[in-house]
Amino acid sequence: MPDTFEGVIGLEVHAHLLTRSKIFCSSSTEFGAEPNSHTCPVCMGLPGALPVLNKKVVDFAIRAGLATNCTVKRKSIFARKNYYYPDLPKGYQISQYEEPLCEEGYLDIFPKGQKKQIRIKRIHMEEDAGKLVHEGAIETSTYSLVDFNRSSVPLLEIVSEPDLASPEEAVSYLKMLRDVLIYLDICDGNMEEGSFRCDANVSVRKVGDEKLGTRSELKNLNSFRSIERALAYEIERQTEVIASGGEVVQETRLFNVDEGVTYSMRGKEEAHDYRYFPEPDLVPLIVDEAWEEQIRRELPELPVQKMDRFLSEYGLPRYDVEILTGDRALASYFEETVALYPEPKAVSNWIMSELLRELNNSNTSPSQSPFRPAHLAELLTLIKDEVISGKIGKEIFPEVYRLGAAPGVYIRERGLVQITDADALKETIDGVVARFPKEVGEFRGGKERLLGFFVGQVMKETKGKANPKLLNELLADRLKR
Questions:
Q1: Which residue has the higher pLDDT, 456 or 362?
Q2: Alpha helices in 261-372 (DSSP H)
Q3: How far is the C-alpha of 253 from the C-alpha of 93, rounded, in Å?
Q4: Reported pTM
Q5: Which residue segment(s) compose the domain that 284 sits in?
Q6: How many of the other CB atoms lie within 10 Å of CB of 282?
């Protein structure tokens, strides 16, 4: 992008709430059921059916508002958002418009380790639409099927101000927001299933200008990688349009993942296109101070708070802290291990290298790991006490992880206990020294780096079980004689 232009990004996040029933009826929200099996007259919009607000949805929305430093409105209003689409059975969506539940909050993010505050304009509740299932590719499809299971599943729409300046900042914001919602136990954050998805409003302007440029909206971006690629492409596209003397058109665009480009979908709607008016079948929602305070008292420790505590309490580098606190289950795993083996940096190192590798390979959450915190603490204790070497510990980790085995039992059964008997090591050393007289002469002639060669040979003989510290001492002494 030429240095004279900068990107301006605002995000609209849609998050499915973890309620068992839908926002206005008792139909199940379970994902993956047979098409159209979780429906009823209310969520299908049949004549005479009336919506009843699910209180748990409001509880979760207030929780999200408080966690993102929003003002919770004492009075909010539901509205009808009118538009026609085949997966919208009523011909309108029940949402909130002029009077949302939460306003004027913010979220701290840490792109490149630097703190930046992103303002949140509003958080409101609404119902999701159904889902079209296309026969083949959309472009060539001859027909589409409609699954209404998702219709009226409760959503939070979380709208940021246009405070994000780059695709990297946008992804940092989305990851932090997703972490907050998961910490709150109100959304599972599953982007593949559409539980956490976003639309992006993107424009460019000359550096130093206060006025916002004409924006394009990118719809339904459902992976962090796709979001970053789509935003980067769109900023570059708009910059080239303006630099060549053209004008950016306000429109809605889709991102082609395979080609890495955005393309026009339709003209961008304005609020008046939806003909919002107050939902006549729902009374105004009143949230009194007692209700808000009860939820505030129940808030858990949030990601930024946990990050600050890990930095001060455990003395870890920020890089470690961001990884450990990015997953609430991983943070709990770390703290449970440290309680048993109080060396935070060592625990962090093994979690970030060995444990995360196995979790990723097996697509397993830390909370479901067969290798529990007590196992990791035991393994680290065995290494510290020189029962096994760190090298052996790393070699056996994949197997003890898979088996969920107690490391002490595993190494004893397989004869992996470290050799700390000096006499036994001296015998092996003598044999190695006798086999390599030329290298012994070179070592004594000043090539002391050959000590590593002899260490390797003894380790080969002992199958890696020689105590490294003792081995180095005995070898240095033997080679100098």
A1: 362
A2: 289-297, 303-314, 318-325, 328-340, 344-350, 356-362
A3: 22
A4: 0.82
A5: 5-295
A6: 17
